[in-house]
Known about the structure:
Chain A is an all-alpha fold and 303 residues long. Helices cover 76% and strands 2% of the residues of chain A.
Amino acid sequence: MSTLIYTTLELSLIGSLTVLGLYLSYITLNVCDLSTDGCFTLGATTAAVVALSGHPYLAIPAAMMSGILSGLVVSLLQTYFGVNSLLSGIIVNTALYSVNIAVMGNSSLLNLNKTKTIYSILKDLSKDTLFQSFSFLIIEAAIVALVIVFLNYFLKTRIGLAIRATGDNPIMVQASSIDPKITTIIALCISNSFTALSGCLLCLSQKSVNIDIGNGMVTIALASLLISRIFYKNSSTLKRLLYCVLGTLIFRSVYALALRMNMPAYMLKFVSALIVAITISIPYIRSKLPLYKRKAEIRRSSL
Amino acid sequence: MIQISNLTKVFNKGTINEKIAIDHLHLTINDSDFICIIGANGSGKSTLLNCLSGAMICEEGNIVMNGKNITLNSQDRRAHEIGYLFQDPMAGTAPHMSVEENLAMAFKNGSWLSRIKEKDRAFFKEKLKELDMGLEDKLKMEVGVLSGGMRQALTLVMNTLKKPSLLLLDEHTAALDPQSADKVLQLTKKTVEEKDLTCLMVTHNMQTALDLGNRLIMMHEGRIILDLNKEEKEKMSVEDLVRLFKKHAEKDLNNDRMLLL
């Protein structure tokens, strides 16, 4: 049971980085970035290769850099080459499959069992101390905290305001001196660097990476993001970012609970797809409900 | 000074729906000019403003502003010097951002990574106080909850925080209720006079066109058919303007009839 809680917490913290990335692209910029799956895997493969080559610390910035590059390609396609935003994500996602296999050196699986990573380093450091059993969680919580502090600061800077405005009112942005192309590029680069960071941490913590590590990640992250959105209302940016972590935790807990109740593990993606479909459609159906009721009343009275 | 020479804008070029919106138009806008533009629907008033703001790029001609040729510059580059107010009061502000965040975006003070400082906040408050709408107490409020009149007044402040070389107003009071429209119009007049702005205003209200500004232009079929200075304008009445308006419309009618015969 305690392993289950531990794993749930770990997966929530790691996954919340992707959710924070999507918060920037999907909620703030209002662009649905479908390259998330490939970018997540790219972060994982890059981190694995760099760690294997003997650079445990470099693995993290290298993974983030790979995410920035992937985000750059997606954003350039939609700003300077006229590709539809959904389509550019799908194109890059497809291309990244080949890139990821190439990064792993023509293999679809890498093992980091005996490789030195930040996880193994901290585990050795915390040996025989109080933190021994949850050294992994400390790394992840620290990184998530850093990302939240950064985003909370960044979204209130002038460039952050410009990115928010690009998602909020494109007409206004075009008539002000902000170039929406530049804001889109910056936002997608940052967003994808967090997605790649998320993949990097998952790979390092489970000590292996395979080509399917990011499959369905965009749906899982969107499900978590939409759960967190329920709490937003009029809350501040910092609270919203914290709700992103909470939303991921809720999603992962529900999933863990379902596993305890003997739901087969392969159902994860079905459940996440269901959550996304339901959370998006509920507000729409609710807004239409009064109309349906009135229609039914008219039909009844005319009978 | 802004010199517009030989400006031509054609919609749907090369198709049967081809329409010449602006037809080899010449116009010189002097510094501190406040020009009201009137004309029937489709006469090219809004297209002229769009060509100046960069929202549309003209097919022919040149636009020279303060000695620089800006004909092909993108909209965001021109926006450093050209302010623009839309007819839609919702179009000029970001609804899910607070009043101060909208103002900070327009103020463009400090580096890209700087945030709103107390000094900026005091400056915004002072500017909003001049509106006399109580907006100075709503700095943290989301703009989306404000009324159309307030949002348009805020857009006016945002566009004039730093003195623009040219301010374009595209029927910016047409979508407001009469009281708010009047308020925004008075604010516009006050701002333009106090800051000594150069301004182009499109309006459908003949009385407004006669009351405001120092020049009046009437457009028809993409050309300027009347350009009155302050003295000539003062002698005009709304009836005179309407008569001129109709005269040109009838001329077209007669031409059409001649074609049919």
